[in-house]
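User: Second chain of the day. Same drill as before.
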Amino acid sequence: MDDIFKALADPTRRKLLDSLRDRAGQTLTELEQGLGMTRFGVMKHLKVLEEAKLVTSRKEGRFRYHYLNAAPIQEVADRWIAPYQKPFARYALNLKAMLESRATMPTKPDFILETFIKTTQDALWEALINPDQTELYYFGGRLKSSLKPGAPFQYLQADGTMLLDGELLEIHPKRRIVSTFIPNWGEDRQASRVTFDLEPFGDVVKFTITHQDMDKAPSGVTTGWAQVASSLKSFLESGVPLTYPPANM
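Assistant: Same format as last time:
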């Protein structure tokens, strides 16, 4: 967590995060032009942010796109904000604003979240597909799916109401799940696309959530993903998931 505070201490790096919050998926050239910095300066600060896991990037074709990674910010909020809600109310609101990033370019992922979980690939996979476990960290939602392409991929609440509707598009055991995402809230329920990727990294597993077509999803989804990932990480590492009040993902 020291890397996170060190990265956030620099005003230039905060400007980079603000830029990625306002427009996710920018290239190095776009960041350079938008902030009036040299290419070397942007690269130098991006390296610090990437080492702190506050920024992640994805290469598509000839370009590499950069994104604000919400997971570490959520972990800071969970550790330092939640126990002291009143004195840190303003800080919490600022963090929430940083988590709300939306993209404008439909040809690339709109949102990417990466976190590293000290667990096994088998345990993480089981947590993603076992309804008894999804209920613990996914806002009380129990996964309902036969886990076959074309089958429903839904999360149901304890009373049987639909939290999230969807269809399983791809499944590669212990590596990837791709599904449509149709939330049961908001005025216009349109399908977007979500991918879960698992990749072992020594003693940890890199877990990545990629959300495309987020212009079709209601507001609050980016914050919701950060909360899901943070609670999942806590559950697998300590056996105790984090609890959040029912919210619009």
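Strands lie at 55-60, 63-68, 111-117, 142-144, 154-156, 162-165, 168-172, 176-183, 192-201, 204-212.

User: Great, on to the next one.
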